[in-house]
Amino acid sequence: MTYDYIIVGGGPAGCVLANRLSADPSTKVLLLEAGGGDWNPLFAMPAGFAKMTKGVASWGWSTVPQKQLNGRVIWYTQAKVIGGGSSINAQLYTRGNAKDYDAWVSEAGCKGWSYREVLPYFVRSEDNQRLVNAYHGYGGPLGVSYPINPLPISFAFVRAAQEAGIPFNDDFNGAVQDGIGHYQLSTRNAQRSSASSAFLKPIKARKNLTVRLNSETLKIDVEKGRAVGVTIARGSGTESLLADREVIVSCGAIGSPRLLQLSGIGPADALKAARVAVVHDLPGVGSNMQDHLDLYAISECTGDHTYDRVARPHRTLWAGIEYLLFKTGPVTSTLFETGGFWYADKGARSPDIQFHLGLGSGIEAGVAQMKNPGVTLNSAFLRPRSRGTVRLASADPKAAPLVDPNYWADPYDRACALKGLRLAREILRQPALKPYVLAERLPGDDLSSDGELAEYAYRSCKTDHHPAGTCAMGMGRQAVVTPDLKLRGIEGLRVVDASVMPFVPSCNTNAPTIMVAEKASDIILGNEPLPAALL
């Protein structure tokens, strides 16, 4: 079969591209997704996130042992389902700081990607429940709303953070990112608004769009310096599909460099080590990996103040009934609805720590669960200086990639992360939380020095699931794609997803990934860019 565009990867970027590129009925578009459909009700339920990081709809990968974390191997949830990460994440709608995108231009040479130039693409996607102003819009595909019914402990946390010196902020995506408050969420009518439900389901009747699930792409086919199609697995054999215009790789910051390398595109030495024939020597593929490492404090509560109480079978049943009948109750919660942005390094250009208040203990895979109700406060350092890699273990497409975020390779990251953990502990000890918090259980009051907290981090840290940068755009030698997202040295091939971000944004990465795809669609179609925002 021949198509105009073949999009490999049905995550947030792939769903956006499938929608925008197929708007012209004369254009034939194919979207390939290795995972299955999002039919299970858990995908639509906001609280279903709690199941997702424990292996549902995931590739099942882990990192290599982390040298600076005492050899720790970290479970690395990567979505394997239509909608990608947007179908399994905690649904936090955050865009980062204006200075993040301005740095893409000033430090990486990505002309056209300044904050004023990308803001209109954030707004174009948005269907905001409450806000319409210079920073927000409504009527777009992606539902954005505020928490339906935050628990009292969430409001107490907001007061406690203010007691610790962090101001209140009711819109982290507006004029100012600094502060504490309730997050905007990618939800609509008490349901998850994933890229699949927002961008694909409304257009499923388009005859010029083909979506193939459970279709793993094995390699990009290149002839005479041009990408001409892809080879996918089919039964016990393979199938070749042709693209007249472009192959667009949208497999995410792990999957995209993996597929390029399986296709012989990447650093020649690394390809040879994996016994892959070199098609195009491109040193930056799989390098420049950045991710947010998460540390957390857990306190025991004075009573049933969080959703730990719902874990009992009869309460779980009632919560499900309440959600199905009334769209209210615990199932409407994303479990991480409150938090904010503040500073570990007081001289930083913008906030470098993000807090997520977890309404329970043991919500995510690998996080301790307590016997009594608890509350978790996650802290993540947002602008790591450490850089990691994604490499092939072998030429076998079934082999898991070698994912090495290289956490804390730069001592600055370690210092800031520990400051963030100290801030989290300080907030949980403020007077406003006294009626709700009995005592800190992790790390525990007996741990106070940097060395002790680092040892605790080695045992308990986790990823925030925000990998980026592994096919970075820019103008330097290590750049993989140009600012118009064309792969350097091969015609008819682009990369569009979080891997092209030269620096990971200071936030959750779902909304920025959707923005990248929105802007990419205009670039690919030759449309005039949206007018830069007047701020």
Report what the structure shows.
- The protein has 13 helices and 24 strands.
- The protein has helices at residues 12-21, 41-44, 49-52, 98-108, 115-125, 152-163, 195-200, 252-262, 268-273, 313-326, 411-428, 450-460, 510-525; strands at residues 2-8, 29-32, 61-62, 75-76, 126-128, 142-144, 179-182, 187-188, 191-192, 209-212, 217-223, 226-234, 237-249, 265-266, 280-281, 293-301, 338-342, 353-358, 374-381, 389-391, 402-404, 437-442, 462-463, 493-495.
- Strands 1, 2, 10, 11, 12, 13 and 24 form a seven-stranded mixed sheet that branches. Strands 7, 16, 17, 18, 19, 22 and 23 form a seven-stranded antiparallel sheet that branches.
- The longest helix has 18 residues, at 411-428.
- It is globular and about 70 Å long.
- The model has no long low-confidence stretch (mean pLDDT 95).
Shape: globular
CATH classification, class level of one domain:
Alpha Beta
Largest sheet: 7 strands, mixed
| First and last CA, distance | 47 Å
Helix content: 25-40%
Tally of separate helices: 13
Secondary structure tally: strands? 24
Overall pLDDT confidence:
95
Low-confidence runs of at least 5 consecutive residues: none
Query: What is the CATH third-level topology name of one domain?
Result: Cholesterol Oxidase, domain 2
Reported CATH architecture of one domain: 2-Layer Sandwich
Radius of gyration equals 22 Å
Overall structural class, as computed from helix and strand content, comes to: alpha/beta
What percent of residues are in strands? 15-25%
